[in-house]
Amino acid sequence: MASLLSFPLSKPNLIKCSSSSPTATTLSTPDTLDQKFGRKGIKFSESGNTPTVELTVRNGSSLQLNIAEGLVTSYKPKVYWKDDGFEEVLYTVPATGSEFAKPKGGIGLVIDDVSASSANGVSTSSKGTSLSLSEWTVKDADSDSIDALQVELSCTEGTLDITYVVSLYPLSMATAVIVKNNARKPVHMKSAILSHLIFKKRGGAAIQGLKGCSYCSHPPLSSPFEILSPPEAMKSESSSWFGSEPENKPGVWSVQEETYTMLKDKMSRVYTAPPAERLKDFYKTAPSKYETLDQGRGLFFRVIRMGYEDIYLSSPGSYSKKFGNDYFICTGPASMLEPVIVNPGEEWRGAQVIEHDNL
């Protein structure tokens, strides 16, 4: 796999994405983007008046990115040797209804500014201010032949310059964020890269690789692309005689004792070192990688965490029936319990890689 952020990107040429209709004398946004950044394997287009880009590498693996929202809406890697051996990895609910409706699910970035609640040692339990992250511009694109493709987006939120890089390789994809603080004071933020992954069967969904890690019940960070809101994610399912054990209350810590984390029932957890443990000179961190297991399709995918401290994991249980026959989970690297501190003039970086060995 090519190294993350390894391409020598040229001088930025920012183009802001717009859903408005082009005039007769100007090029539409997709045409403009294609002229400046399009190349073999990178194709800009428009879907429902929304600029999108599709990346396709040599073996046929592809992904689609909603540019304005910075949302990866599709990832189809080649997982079987046959010619049509591609499978969708992401669970996405298309935008329907009003013209202002947005797609849900996929892979998206969340950043909350919690500086106000973190000042002077005050508790960081406040939700803070959620950054909109809805004015992304295409900053650059590059490729290494057609075995490694990359699109770089950027936006500005107050004093923060945010860069979001989406990369595709034959056996993996990566999403990386760079946050630069241009203010004179430190910025405290909570963040996550949340992926909604599709499974064929509710009873055949599991995670491997979290054994021995501490966890507690915790809501996800709220986002425009969420399928379940934080209150919905934390709501308990109705119990039955043969139901699963109820989740612990928020703030009550447990240790994952089983090799496999079964995702049939409803849960919303953060796997990480408890804040009290982090005060020690040495403590056990969350695993840097874990695997999703889809028994129904016989597939697994490895999720790799970089820069972030926590792992968020949730499953909808019977709530998934509201959205169709397929099952899904939400997971990804996060810094939710303790904020990331970005000092003036400094940068912070975090990333997620989804890779597989199914071939």
Short characterization:
The chain is mainly beta. The chain is 5% helix and 43% strand.
SSE diagram, text form:
Blueprint: E1 15-16, H1 29-37, E2 42-47, E3 50-56, E4 62-66, E5 71-76, E6 92-93, E7 104-105, E8 107-113, H2 115-118, E9 129-130, E10 137-144, E11 148-157, E12 160-169, E13 172-181, E14 187-199, E15 205-208, E16 214-217, H3 230-234, E17 254-255, E18 260-262, E19 267-271, E20 289-294, E21 299-306, E22 310-315, E23 327-342, E24 347-355
Antiparallel strand pairs: 1-10, 2-3, 3-4, 4-5, 6-7, 8-9, 8-14, 10-11, 11-12, 12-13, 13-24, 14-23, 15-18, 15-20, 16-17, 16-19, 19-22, 20-21, 21-24, 22-23
Please give a structural write-up:
This protein has helices spanning 29-37, 115-118, 230-234, and strands at residues 15-16, 42-47, 50-56, 62-66, 71-76, 92-93, 104-105, 107-113, 129-130, 137-144, 148-157, 160-169, 172-181, 187-199, 205-208, 214-217, 254-255, 260-262, 267-271, 289-294, 299-306, 310-315, 327-342, 347-355. Strands 1-10-11-12-13-24-21-20-15-18 form a 10-stranded antiparallel beta sheet, with helices on one face. An 8-stranded antiparallel beta sheet has the order 9-8-14-23-22-19-16-17. It is mainly beta. Residues 1-12 and 18-27 have low confidence and may be disordered. A hairpin with a 4-residue loop joins β20 (289-294) and β21.
